Automatic annotation (TrEMBL):
InterPro entries: AAA+_ATPase, AAA_lid_NorR, CheY-like_superfamily, Homeodomain-like_sf, HTH_Fis, P-loop_NTPase, Sig_transdc_resp-reg_receiver, Sigma_54_int. One of its GO terms (molecular function) is ATP binding. Residues 140-369 form the Sigma-54 factor interaction domain. CDD domains: AAA (cd00009). Residues 3-116 form the Response regulatory domain. PROSITE patterns: RESPONSE_REGULATORY (PS50110), SIGMA54_INTERACT_1 (PS00675), SIGMA54_INTERACT_2 (PS00676), SIGMA54_INTERACT_3 (PS00688), SIGMA54_INTERACT_4 (PS50045). This is Two component, sigma54 specific, transcriptional regulator, Fis family. GO terms for biological process: phosphorelay signal transduction system; regulation of DNA-templated transcription. SUPFAM superfamilies: CheY-like (SSF52172), Homeodomain-like (SSF46689), P-loop containing nucleoside triphosphate hydrolases (SSF52540). The modification 4-aspartylphosphate is found at D51. Keywords: ATP-binding, DNA-binding, Nucleotide-binding, Phosphoprotein, Transcription, Transcription regulation.
Amino acid sequence: MAKILLVEDDTTFSTILEGFLKKNGHQVEMRYNVKSSVKSLDESIDLMLLDYRLGDGTGLDVLEEVRNRGLNIPVIIMTSFNDVRTAVRAMRLGVFDYITKPVNPDELLMVLKDALNHNSEEQIPSTTKKLPEEESSDFVKGVSTQSKKLQEYINLVAPTDMSVLVRGESGTGKEYVARSIHLKSNRANKPFVSIDCGTLSKELAASELFGHIKGSFTGALTDKKGQFEEADGGTLFLDEIGNLSYDVQVKLLRALQERVIQPIGANKQIKVDVRVIAATNDDLLGSSASGNFREDLYHRINEFEIIVPALRDRGSDMDTFIEFFVAKANKELNRQVVHLSKEVKDIFKAYDWPGNLRELKNVIKRMVLLTPGDTAESSALPDEMVLSINQHKHHESHPNSEHVAADLKSQSEAHERQLIMDVLQQVKYNKSKAAQVLNIDRKTLYNKLDKYGIS
Ligand SMILES: Nc1ncnc2c1ncn2[C@@H]1O[C@H](COP(=O)(O)OP(=O)(O)OP(=O)(O)O)[C@@H](O)[C@H]1O
């Protein structure tokens, strides 16, 4: 039995969930907004189930507080299908997993079990973790031209000591690439230390990287080794490097140039031999989001750049990845899925996979879980995924019916927006009625109005 903090502002849905979780032996505390859930955070909670959109903020605000307080609680985000992109990104911020609404009970139990069973090191994608080498058997190389190029670059740069900047969309496998480089380098039998700069608070980033000595600031109760020292002789992977504050960037540049670090509060310097691989899904110098990334540091970490292709651009690899993730899910869930129906294959091909490999892996795991026999049907896919593809097909066969937008996502969004506007007009802008006609709850309608800028 686990103690679960359930944060969901749709009271009907949260009562249903509460009943379901209790029936499955858990103890549940319910909260309905960011404010009250933050007040209830403490070490007795084993797991959090967080709605993404809450009345006074988002689930990520709660998550930030969990992190700031140093609590090691696995968090599962519940999100609408339209927010998958955000949910995948949220995993970078320490979310254990996400599930899409409408929540499927079997899927929820599977994700809960995974989260509760993970050993404490893996409970939350922690800021630092060393990766066992045998995991490399999990790496699918792919056969497309893009994958061959990627592999070629990995092989080329691995044996050198160059700093590498790995760029790519969320969930494309940047950390896998970094690990691959490490395992093929002369440093392979030394530590690979991964730090997610996206989860480091501003205050703690310098101490996490460079260490501190006891008493150097409030809360520094003992001496602490920084991750640079932990990675000595090996590789330090700095994920989401664009999130480092300006001050820390200055310190990092110095560490890279002079190969020495100075723990906070220490008056002596420590020599370190560390290869740095950094990753970002931003254009570090070009985008306003990372507007103040230092150019000198950028050039120092970008001695060699590797761009990891998005899943939708990996052509023939798609089948290899599907096969791999199905086999993995079969093994984990004790299922025997060997075929995908034609419809599932078509949907997989047409979908644009904003969350890339991470999303594919999750969708497949859910599909395998919901497939008792040997053939996976589209009924085992998230409803809205199927719907968005069907809408896309409709647009293709009626190209003049509306603007033809550039990609699948914007097409289905344009369609949804139009539908909402039509219904609102029909019901004379009575939102409760509109929600009824559209067969969604009012909160979902409000979220959509907000999203599409309909007032
Ligand atoms: N080559 C691969 N073979 C098999 N699985 C892979 C491969 N690359 C990535 N994955 C899977 O996809 C998931 C996402 O990979 P990873 O965390 O490396 O992506 P990322 O680009 O670093 O993500 P983010 O941008 O969120 O930091 C991993 O959990 C892993 O299971």
